[in-house]
Amino acid sequence: MEIRTLHYQDFAGKRYRAVISSDRYLSIEPEGDGFAMEWKTIEPQLTKQLSDEMLSDWLDDPVAYGAYEGDELIGFTEGFLETWNNRFRITNICIFDQECRLSGIGTKLLEAVMQDAVKSNARMIVLETQSYNAGAISFYKKKGFEIIGFDRYAYSNDDPKEHNMRIEMGQMLPSI
Questions:
Q1: What strand order describes the sheet that includes 146-151?
Q2: Is 176 helix (H, G, I), strand (E, B) or coil?
Q3: How many CA atoms lie within 13 A of 176 on its CB side?
Q4: Are 122 and 115 in contact (CB under 8 A)?
Q5: What is the pLDDT of residues 127-161, one digit of tens each?
Q6: Which of these, 59, 86, 84, lies nearest to 76 by C-alpha position?
Q7: Of the residues 77, 81, 109, 158, which has the fewest C-beta atoms closer than 10 A?
Q8: Is the pLDDT of residue 66 over 60?
Q9: Cα(132)–Cα(165) distance, rounded to whole angstroms?
Q10: Residue 76's closest CA among 30, 25, 17?
């Protein structure tokens, strides 16, 4: 497996697909003057089909890396510096085939994009995931990220009951 730079002109707008399966979700419920977070089981297991495009045109001067097995792109990451608040936002880390997850590909992609974040002199690196994506939340926590915010209704008015709440995760970066 090799990590390569993805060039905007070659990948902008290309569609990708992935499947995410999870048997638990992070429940976030109002409690008193705050919120309570708790892992809960999903039965039957939740499966989400994802389809999106790489390097969307709203990204401001993005960087992107692909994980290749030979000539086959098996995953990618992309991100950019949010200049208004000096945070580097990872907008995607995706391993297309579930069978390839937990094999170190995500770690290699994260390391590549984090180098750009550090070089940009960003104060933090941030990303978004969803409350049903237990594997991603666990992965990011192992890599030093913490939950820095959430939105219970980011995608629809049914997000809490669909276990699809927006989770913002972040990590402070060392000053250069």
A1: 2-5, 63-69, 72-82, 87-95, 124-130, 166-172, 146-151
A2: coil
A3: 10
A4: no
A5: 999 999 999 999 999 999 999 999 999 999 999 99
A6: 59
A7: 158
A8: yes
A9: 8
A10: 17
Type of residue numbered 35: F
Q: What is the Cα–Cα distance from 65 to 109, expressed in whole angstroms?
A: 7
Q: Is 117 exposed, middle or buried (0-12, 13-18, 19+ CB in 10 A)?
A: buried
What own/partner pairs with CB < 8 Å and gap ≥ 24 does 134-139 have? 134/22, 134/23, 134/24, 134/25, 134/26, 134/39, 135/20, 135/22, 135/101, 136/20, 136/93, 137/26, 137/167, 137/169, 139/106
The two three-digit tokens of residue 139, written as one number: 């992965």
In tens, the pLDDT along 16-40 reads: 888 889 999 999 999 999 999 999 9
- Domains of the chain in start order, with CATH, are 2-172 (3.40.630.30)
Token pair of 103 as six digits:
């094999």
Q: CA-based angle 96:100:103, to the nearest 5?
A: 135
pLDDT at 124 over 80: yes
Round to whole Å and give the CA distance between 55 and 65.
Answer: 11
